[in-house]
Design a protein that fits this description.
With 829 residues, the chain is mainly β. The chain is built from 9 helices and 44 strands. Strand 41 and strand 42 form a beta hairpin. InterPro entries: CarboxyPept-like_regulatory, DUF5686.
Length: 829
Amino acid sequence: MRNFTLLAFLIFSISNFAQIKGTITDEKGNPLPFVSIFEEGTYRGTTSNEQGQYQLQVKEIGKNRIVFQYLGFKTQKITVSPDSKNVTLDVKLVEESFALNEVVIDPKNNPANAIIKSAIVNKKENSDKTGRFTADFYSKGMFKVKDLPKKILGQKVDLGADMASNLDSTGSGILYLSETVSKIAFEKPAKLKEKIIASKISGNNRGYSYNTAALSTYDFYDNTLDFDVKMISPIADNAFNYYKYKLEGSFYDDNNKQIYKIKIIPKRDKEPVFEGYIYIVDDSFAIYAIDLDLKGYRMKNEFTETMSLTQSFSYNAKNKIWSKNAQTLSFTAGLFGIKFSGNFNYVYSNYEFPASFEKKTFGNEIVSFEANANKKDNAFWNEIRPIPLTIEESNDYTKKDSLLVIRKSKKYTDSIDAKNNKFKVWDILMGYDYKNTFKQYSFNYQGLLNIASLSFNTVQGFNLDSGFSFKKENEEKGKSTSIGTTFNYGFSDERFRATGYFSHKFNNINYATIGASGGTKVAQFNSSEPITKLVNSVSSLFFKDNYMKLYNLEYAQVNYSQDVSNGVNLFAKVAYEQRKPLFNTTDYSFFKRDDLYSSNNPLDPNDFTIAPFEQHHLFKTGINARINFGNKYISRPDGRYNFKDDRYPTLTLGFEKAFAASEKKYEFERIGASLQYDLNLNNKGTLGMNFRAGKFFNAENIAFIDYRHFNGNQTHVGTTGRYLNVFNLMPYYANSTNDSYLEMHLEHNDNGYVMNKIPLLNLLKSTMNIGFHSLAIPDRKPYTEYTIGLDNLGFGKFKLFRVDYVHSYQGGVQQNGVVFGLKILNALD
């Protein structure tokens, strides 16, 4: 009943508004895109689309004047004759005449500097005026691709049948088009509540768009703006450290306010800075408009070429507030000759500026959807949409929405699946996929020659995986079920091993998931697997280094996890494990064939006869709680989607117990905790922290497998983007403990704050990392590491490398080394 009442109210409200529409051009007849149009003295407004077309809802024709405002053109105010409820009004705008007083511009007397200084002094007052508001919000986003090839680096580009049909013969077209209409409440610095009334995605009848106000708030009154890095506002407190300014002229708007047009010029090219223009109002020194560009390399995003951000503000004489009425964000990007572009338009209207909000206005839920928000028909959208669709957008909706019924039909999906599911003889060797799109299940067979799984270790020699998997989904209810098995064969130990798993997720609300797994496999003594199969294979075959220490594990496990409250996730498991020692079975390598591998004993790499532990079995149970403080989430009819609040840390608490072992000495208890936090230092980078601590009980004679092992690295190769979970020069098992431990990792990435200022080195477009790592355990001197290095290294758009110099110290023993970070290896392994 409540939803029916709301819908009726919306329809009634729309029907009581009049509509003014038309096309806006310059004097030569060229359409003007993104012109701000609003009703004078109100906060009802819109913008024109790329073809200069607009439509504006007003309460009553003839009662007020309509304002047309566009950067570089004179503002026009037009009173519309009250002849009907729907009026067509085409407007021609005249270019603005900028006046520049005769002043001597020199470094010591630059009028632009004086204006910017005044804007900085007054920005808190101007920011506070719009620090608390409610508004109607509209967004439209489009993402396009041009010249998409059929293959990249020899691999077929598979967008899926639905997506591929959106492109023409040249591989160009609209990949994504979406709109939302919502009501928002906002309070600085970061409180937001958004209720989405209507949401639409071209060719998607679910239509839960991610175009939200939460992802489009860019406030130049703040010192920094959050893109891929913290970009420096042209009126930041320290803006003169980053920018030079030039007054290019001034003009008077329709309120007889003098507006200064100031060019923004970066002092250093590689800094996180904007370039373009900022328009400042005289007297109040509020922002009148923004017209700025962002270069991809300045954001440390090499794939983005240029991003443009424009904002326009309108003045309300009643409350003397300049408020943002429109924003446009567009970008171009490229890779492998493919061009991507996007354009996102935002309209803010019907502002109210309350003195305060009710206590429960804001909470952890930042976005919610009205029931049936994605079910609004075309008539509703044609009435409420503030920015008219372009011909291209209208055709995209028409084409994709008409094809949607066909593509979702069983006949169509079965025909596409039948084509893709054809079985070929060589699929026995190379693998096979089967999919039933209509019933939402799929089957995968990895093939007998699953080359991607090929690896080498001294226990199995070369070994290869194969296996089967099955997955069934229900997108509407958020359910999914997966079943699979993996077969592994070692060519040197001539042993076949197999594992299987089952997993079922019940919903997308609390993400309750139950799982079971079991079988036989080789496992690393450190269950965190500090050395990957690929890195170990290269280390062994090329350098005759044997770092991966393995044992045979036969196990059966049941686990369950779910979100028990906002930001709190629990994971519990119980498992049976039988452990058997393993020995080297091969001495093969590509090089250094006269050298010997170390043994498979992590306690004594030179002992080839004594096992590191005796064969035994036990049961283990454990429970872990992960707490994301300040967790935010979006509520959609199909699920709840969590967003970690970066202002707060993540805390993990754990308890583990071994019981019913083959011998009492193998039983123990362990408690542990970890705290991860990223301290945002604005334009000075990010300080990452990871603290871990734990304590064993009744563990004097437990198996070495159950010790607390720490992630060392003896390969001098880093495989992760950050080193907050690894000691870069520490041997893998040199400091393992069955007692208490305290582990600390600190790493500061300057995001270019230092490197951007160093001549020549700034050409690398790199970032500097400084790290400190420490480990404290009883009866042993602490282990410490200091690191300094460069990240974001590479060629062209591919910044995949990192180099660090590392100095370590423990008990009088010092080491120095260089770690080469190859972040792509983590994805390939």
